[in-house]
Amino acid sequence: RKEVEQDPGPFNVPEGATVAFNCTYSNSASQSFFWYRQDCRKEPKLLMSVYSSGNEDGRFTAQLNRASQYISLLIRDSKLSDSATYLCVVTALNYGGSQGNLIFGKGTKLSVKP
Amino acid sequence: SQTIHQWPATLVQPVGSPLSLECTVEGTSNPNLYWYRQAAGRGLQLLFYSVGIGQISSEVPQNLSASRPQDRQFILSSKKLLLSDSGFYLCAWDWDRGFDNEQFFGPGTRLTVL
After folding, report:
1. Torsion angle of alpha carbons A5, B37, B11, A82, nearest 10°?
2. Of B3, B10, B44, which to mutate for an interface test with A (greatest number of A Cβ within 10 Å)?
3. What is the pLDDT of residues B48-104, one digit of tens each?
4. For the range A61-70, what are the long-range contacts, defined as Cβ-Cβ under 8 Å and sequence gap of 24 or more?
5. Which residues in chain B have their CB less than 8 angstroms from residue A31's CB?
6. Which residues of B touch A87 (CB under 8 A)?
7. Residues in chain A, pLDDT under 50
8. Which tens digits make up the pLDDT trace of B2-32?
């Protein structure tokens, strides 16, 4: 099983649509979870952290299910500017002896069309 | 505020040539520093991390090396580049306050080995 798995997409949606991304992780010892956004040929940028209770930031909602080792990101009212690749990220604490390292999924590509 | 710089932004090098990529962080002290590589169509791969001056941990065997001569400077080097070294090299930092922290990325260096 891959450490962090995401549907690669692409997700092609019209403006205003609601889109959901899913992610599963294999290391049950992971403590922290994040969603990053990466624009084409640019560096990843932190979109939001993911908390056990779920959290919301404007049009973005992230949820975590530790029992299922599953993370989700919901984007409501999609904008053209949301087009990017969304990376699911978990920590690798105590995994293979590495501390504090982030494990990145390969990302899900989103394309929002007019 | 903290900023992270990388240079050069792009680089085209012949196989067998040496490499030196530089990363510097401003606005913080004693950060953890990281080098990642993102190959075309693949996820981010952690290459090295450093928790302090002169302290380097390697995540994968390869013909690359890293050094941290100053607190906020991180250098990625190679004596002889391979074709497989092509990719997008990203430097990142996080706070030295334990682990499980989100990381912040520099703008990256796009390396093409011919």
Report:
1. 40
2. B44
3. 999 899 999 888 767 899 999 999 999 999 999 999 999 999 999 998 665 567 899
4. A62/A33, A62/A35, A64/A33, A66/A28, A68/A24, A69/A24, A69/A25, A69/A26, A69/A28, A70/A22, A70/A23, A70/A24, A70/A25
5. 100
6. 43-44
7. 95-98
8. 899 999 999 999 999 999 999 999 998 889 9
The whole-angstrom separation of Cα A58 and Cα A80 is: 16
Closest CB to A101 among B46, B102, B105: B46
Give B104→chain A minimum CA distance, Å.
7
Q: How far is B89 from chain A (nearest CA, A)?
A: 9
